[in-house]
Amino acid sequence: MSLPRPIAALASGLLFGLGLALSGMMDPEKVLGFLDLAGAWDPSLAFVLAGAVGVSALGYAVKARMERPLLAPRFEVPANRRPDARLLSGAALFGIGWGLAGFCPGPALAGLAPGLALGLPEVALFVAAMLAGMLLYRLTVGRAPGAAA
Fold it and tell me: Which sequence ranges are marked TM in the entry (predicted)?
């Protein structure tokens, strides 16, 4: 018997948020310290990244032995395996935003409620800017013929 999809999604989200909190990924100062290679570099998040690569490799190994996922009719694997301009420009924008703010979307969303409760408006500002960027994309590029929305 498998879990209903909403319960599985909630459990996955809680596990993801717990991992972000325990690893320090929700602390922008820790993230910025990791990205500061020329200054006071904090290498501790390299272990978090290495752990993520290990979990991902394990997931791919388990997937190779499965006929289909537990909660979906089939695996959704991208057909295009070559980087293109959209992927590279999106990755660059993500990296620039992460380096400037110390947040990326997952940790920012996970830290939104605690940030507001602790009087840290920069988390809410980042999430608002992220949502504005998503809306701008949908209103411009996302409506172009053949674009993925």
Answer: 47-66, 87-110, 116-137
Q: How far apart are CA 24 and CA 107, in angstroms?
A: 9
Return per-residue pLDDT of the chain as tens, 149 residues.
567 888 988 998 888 888 888 888 888 888 888 888 888 888 988 898 899 899 999 999 999 999 998 888 888 888 888 899 988 998 998 888 888 888 888 888 888 888 778 777 888 888 999 899 889 988 988 765 555 54
Stated as kind and residue range, the H or E segment containing 87 is: helix 85-101
Tally DSSP H helices, then E strands, for the chain.
Answer: 6, 0
8 A C-beta contact, residue 13 and residue 6:
no
Residue where a domain terminates, one of 77, 106, 134: 77
Of the residues 17, 49, 77, the one at which a domain ends: 77
- Provide the domain limits for residue 105: 82-149
Are the beta carbons of 127 and 101 closer than 8 angstroms?
no
Sequence-separated (6 or more) residues with CB below 8 Å from residue 35: 98, 99, 102
